[in-house]
Amino acid sequence: MNRSELVKIVAVKLEVSQVMVNSILGEIIETIEETVADGEEVLLVGFGTFKSRLRKARKCRNPQNNEPVQVAETTIPVFKPGKKLKDRVKNLS
Fold first, then answer.
1. Which of 5, 13, 32, 40 is most buried, taking the most CB atoms under 10 A from its CB?
2. What is the pTM of this model?
3. Which domains does the chain have, with CATH numbers?
4. Exposed e or buried b for every residue in 1-35, given b needs 16+ CB within 10 A?
């Protein structure tokens, strides 16, 4: 499912315009991005947590020539799914 498909489904369920849903979704995403970029967490109980974490420097291999490469320490965004989401996905199998 892509963004436009999600917007259509939510608009139908809530009986509001797709324009309104798209605008709200955009603001939600932007707020999550800003919060995580500021080093804070966004906790959506049952769904999951968006946060950033430090990935340590490490050695890797260049797949083109198999030479060792040092990858610098960096901050990355992470998402940890909540219990409700994990349970729902687990029940698919």
1. 32
2. 0.82
3. 3-90 (4.10.520.10)
4. eeeeeebeebbeeeeeeeeebbeeeeeeeeeeeee
